[in-house]
Amino acid sequence: MSQPPKSLLDTPALLIDLDVLEANIAHIAQTCRAHGVAWRPHFKGHKTLEIARKQLAAGAIGITCAKLGEAEVLAAGGIRDILIANQIVGAIKVARLMRLLDTADAIVAVDSRENILELAKAAWQSGKDLRVVIEVNTGMNRAGVEPGGPVLAIAAEIGQHPNLRLVGVMGWEAHTTAIADPLAKEKAVAAAIGFLTASADQCRRAGHDMQIVSCGGTGTFHYCVKQPGVTEVQVGGAVMSDEHYRGHYNVDMPVSLTILATVTSRPTPTRIILDAGRKAMSIEAAVPRALNVPGVRELRLSAEHAQLELDTPSDTPRIGDHVELVAGYTDTTVHLHEEIVALRKGQVEAVWKVAGRGKIK
Q1: Angle in degrees, 0-180, between the axes of helices 149-158 and 182-205, rounded to the nearest 10
Q2: Which architecture does CATH list for 20-239?
């Protein structure tokens, strides 16, 4: 039976072009291989098991996620090698983490003695071993241990607990992402990751096993893979791309994810109203971009509507027509939807559940 075209879809709908998605995945995987770096892509943007499986099939060694709830979704989907790039804190979450170890070989990030003691006690009581990485502050100034001596001190603390297994370090050089000049950006990325790799080397000299040196994201993709000492990168959003990555981070990856909306009103020849607002796409990081609608002077979002103002009067698109938009920021758009419609040459090939939706705990 032939699949329906996207023109028959109800809206708002989240679409993914499979040819572009698969080409982006192949490009990232090949780039990592060319530089001898493993790929552990982030799940927090697409939140979809089917995309994670495509990444693993292309050569990814495992999956990174932001939240324990996402890791539980991945494990339930049969994915075992999971890095939770965050601190898991508190009795409720730590108990869930111990249960997760029954179905996944999870790694968690730590950056404090208090959290290490909490994890060590739970692992000992449950009779399980837990892999941990030390999160290092490489200049982003969010979470993380300061480079050098403080990292070594945390490593020594982890070494006191037989049920915790230190496997490396991780960091995120987010403060470099928006640097416009390519040479300045490359220099800043190298400096930031240098703090991470130097900390790993210091731990190795002290006898600690540093299998993993994990960093990188879409905003630094072209530079993080080149840095000596890096073992894996977490590049995730590039498989979809969006206005934020392309416009602010200068990462020119083809767009595979779009939002399909319907024209519901044409109050004036220069105004177009769509049925997709802030509940279907975000506008905070960047403004979505309407495709095949020339002369859009401004796009504004309210809760349930998008309002496009044109430079000059036009009678198209008409009421009932579809308009496709590039997401402003995929990370804060995908989670608004229950499903992604996967298209091949404009025809529906599959409908994927956004399995990680709502998994913020």
Answers
A1: 40
A2: Alpha-Beta Barrel (3.20)
> What is the CATH code for 252-353?
2.40.37.20
The tens digit of pLDDT for each residue in 312-345 reads 999 999 999 999 999 999 999 999 999 999 999 9
Which tokens hold the place of 359?
Answer: 């998994």
Structure tokens at 129: 């071993």
Alpha helices by DSSP H, 10-160 = 18-34, 49-57, 68-76, 91-100, 113-126, 149-158
Helix then strand count (H, E) for the chain reads 9, 17
Q: Which three-class secondary structure state does DSSP give residue 261?
A: strand
Mean pLDDT rounded to a whole number for the chain: 97
* CA-based nearest residue to 161, from 211, 125, 204: 125
Q: How far is CA 29 from the centre of its chain?
A: 15
Residue 214's contacts (CB-CB under 8 Å, 6 or more residues apart) are 40, 64, 83, 85, 133, 168, 169, 170, 171, 230, 231, 232, 233, 234
Q: How many CB atoms lie within 10 A of CB 96?
A: 16
Instruction: Report d(CA 113, CA 153) in Å as an integer.
Output: 9
Residue that wins the pLDDT comparison between 346 and 4:
346
For residue 231, pLDDT beyond 90: yes
With b for 16 or more beta-carbon neighbours within 10 A and e for fewer, the 204-241 pattern comes to eeeebebebbbbbbbbbbbbbbebeebbbbbbbbbbbb
The total of other beta-carbon atoms located within 10 Å of residue 298's CB is 10
- List pLDDT tens digits, range 134-184: 999 999 999 999 999 999 999 999 999 999 999 999 999 999 999 999 999
Is pLDDT above 90 for 3? no
Please enumerate in sequence order all residues whose Cβ is within 8 A of that of 222, keeping only pairs 6 or more positions apart, or say none: 251
Handedness of CA 132, 221, 345, 356 (dihedral sign): positive
- Strand duo 63-65 + 289-290: pairing: unpaired
Cis peptide before 254 (omega within 30 of 0): no
Task: Show me where the domains of the chain are located.
Answer: 20-239, 252-353
* Rg of the chain taking only CA atoms, in angstroms: 22
The answer to whether 119 touches 167, Cβ cutoff 8 Å, is: no
Same fold, 20-239 and 252-353: no
| Number of CB atoms found within 10 A of residue 293's CB | 20
